[in-house]
User: What shape does this take?
Amino acid sequence: MVVLTKEQELHLQWAISIRARNQLCSLNLLALFEEYEEQWKTKKFARAAQDLSAAAFSLWRAAFLAGGKTSKRGAVFDHGREFLKKVIEDNSISYLQDKNSQEWTFNYYTRNARSSLQVLAKYWPNIAPPYEGQTRDPIDRWTYCQDLLDTAVRNFRPLLAAKKETKERSKQASSVRSAARKRRQLSRSITLSKRKKL
Assistant: This one.
């Protein structure tokens, strides 16, 4: 039987809750992708979809790596070197190598999330809040990035809904104009055929 210390138990409770939070955000993002697929495939939205997905994945992976991280520069360097050695030796990386090098890999994944969030804030300033750089411990860094991602995903919904509604209204107006044009053409052709008979 494994006996956990109170600190280990608290960390596991935190880890489960943040993974669930990230998974819920990812589910909301997937729902947006499904509901507004046509818009996401446009040039304007495609990059945002990539950045949102990258941030969601990176934070999902980082959530598994935050526990026990010391953030000491020497440990980060040692884990980074060991990780690179494994890449060269094995030409393969799995979760186990990520976890064994968590001082470096946690930073890698959270920096990737931060980079994606910064791009979103640059191109979508009304949707994605800016990343405010400051020193944060690993848990605070993860939480801060997830907060930004949650906000961006939530803020995209009304924008996408408005775009979809505008497009649908435009299609309806175009359809009405097209039907009116066809009626006029039919009316003209009937009038012309009657004139020819006279």
About this structure: The chain has a mean pLDDT of 87. The first helix runs from residue 6 to 35. The chain has one domain: 6-197. The two ends are 104 Å apart (CA to CA).
